[in-house]
Design a protein that fits this description.
- The two termini are 36 Å apart.
- This protein has six helices and nine strands; from the N terminus they run ααββααββααβββββ.
- The protein has two domains: 167 residues, no CATH class; 44 residues.
- The chain is α+β, with helices and mostly antiparallel strands.
Length: 223
Amino acid sequence: MQTRIQKNFKRIAAHFIGCTLMPVTSVMATQYDAHIHGVAEISIVMEGKELHMQLHSPADTLVGFEHKAQTQQQKQAVQTVDRYLNTVNKIVEFTGNKCNAVEIEVDVTALLPEEHGHDEHEHEHDKHAHEHDKHTHEHDEHEHKHDKHEHEHEHDGHERSDTHIEITANYQFLCDDITEISAIQIKLFEQFPALEKVQAIWIGPNGQNAQMLSKNDNSIKLN
């Protein structure tokens, strides 16, 4: 389900797509379909006084793993990244004009551990079934084999679903005058050593462009 800020981003992007020749939607789709460790994507759309920015990154690049957080250290790593991405002045810096963040949405839910209430219920149910079935050895053996097969099947499915996990963040800014913004510095490289490149694409009053950013060249040049 799309959030309001995501819908606003697509609405503004669609407006510019109708006024330009470059198929921006296909470029963005190609960006988000690619899952390359060490490479994040940023899309920026500017209209009026509004500036919308989306960040997509492989989870491994930011937290060091791509599965549900299991240890306390992994849970803390997810919380640290969540807090960092919610701190705008650590993410982006504007040159030439002042922009204030009015809405931020960071999504790290794919890395959060699942609730254990259902598992505990299943455990109690299995314990009761075991007590009942131990009086019938053959039935118990059959159930054991069936449960083992189901467990292996579920485990395989879990591994496949966690193969690629993305961390996403959406930012909405209000600027005094977007046309005066000359550059946007992306400061992610300072916090995440595994981040090697950021593919940036932007659309605004002066047209659209794309730029590959790195630690030594982390500024989007608009003018």
